[in-house]
Every structure is written in structure tokens, then in C-alpha cells.
């Protein structure tokens, strides 16, 4: 299975990089996982609704350029579906069973994802109704993907 984590914005915090790299190392036993970092669109603090859509649109174009036609896309969004770790594991297992070997998880920038990216998504995922920094979501996501593989293999992992 080939998993891409397509994300807007650079990761600067050393502690988050270390955590993500640890889970990526652990995941290498189960799947090929790559993190694709895309630049965020520079924008002033106080944006109008139109300017926000323009920023998300430009970031969305960059995201979509990294997704091939045969990729199953899961967009992370607050309004996405909330799932348990077991449900995510089951989703990953079903995708593998039905020959979906390319999966992309998409994490947008600070304004979220464009409507074009949401339309391209085959599924949505929300970890909480709360808002988290997208850098932290990377760490949470790779941990949950790792947990999913452990669950599917019947391997022990703390609850």
C-alpha cells in the first residue's frame, strides 16, 4: 500500500518532526508512506470571504496536482466523518482488499480545503470538532495510520 500525506505548510517544530519521523519509521514495516509538503499561500490576517476562497483555491490547485487519478483521497476536515481507530483500521483494510493501493490523506492549510479538493475526496475524516494546528494533525494522523495497521494485524498496541 502506498500512502501519501499531502499537507499545506512547512513543519518547523523539531519535536513534531521527531514524532512524525518515529511513526513513519514504524510504518515502513506495513506500507510505503510519504509526506508531501506544499507551500501555503501567503495572505494577510484579515481576509474577506472572497480572498479566503482565493487562497484555498490556490492551495487546492497545488494539492490536486499531487493526486493521481487512481488515488483514493481522504480529506481531513472538521466537518468530516468522525471514526474510531478501529473504524479507520477497517477502512484501510477494505481499501487494500478492494485493490485501492494508493491512498492520499489531505491536510489543508490554516483556512481549510478548497471546494475542488473536497469534491475530489472519496471520503472525509475528522478527528474532533476542535480545531488543531495542521502541523499537529500530521503527527496525530501518522499515529492513527500506524495504530490502524497494528489493529488489522492483530498486534498489541496500547489503548
TrEMBL record:
Homodimer. The keyword S-adenosyl-L-methionine applies. One of its GO terms (cellular component) is cytoplasm. It comes from Priestia filamentosa. Its EC number is 2.1.1.177. The gene is rlmH. It catalyses: pseudouridine(1915) in 23S rRNA + S-adenosyl-L-methionine = N(3)-methylpseudouridine(1915) in 23S rRNA + S-adenosyl-L-homocysteine + H(+). This is Ribosomal RNA large subunit methyltransferase H. Belongs to the RNA methyltransferase RlmH family. CDD domains: RlmH-like. It comes from the Bacteria. It is found in: Cytoplasm. The lineage of its organism: Bacteria, Bacillati, Bacillota, Bacilli, Bacillales. InterPro entries: Alpha/beta_knot_MTases, RlmH-like, tRNA_m1G_MTases_N. The keyword Transferase applies. S-adenosyl-L-methionine binds at residues 76, 108, 127-132. GO terms for molecular function: rRNA (pseudouridine-N3-)-methyltransferase activity. Keywords: Cytoplasm, Methyltransferase, rRNA processing, S-adenosyl-L-methionine, Transferase. It is an enzyme of class 2 (transferase). Its main location: cytoplasm. Specifically methylates the pseudouridine at position 1915 (m3Psi1915) in 23S rRNA. It holds the Pfam family SPOUT_MTase.
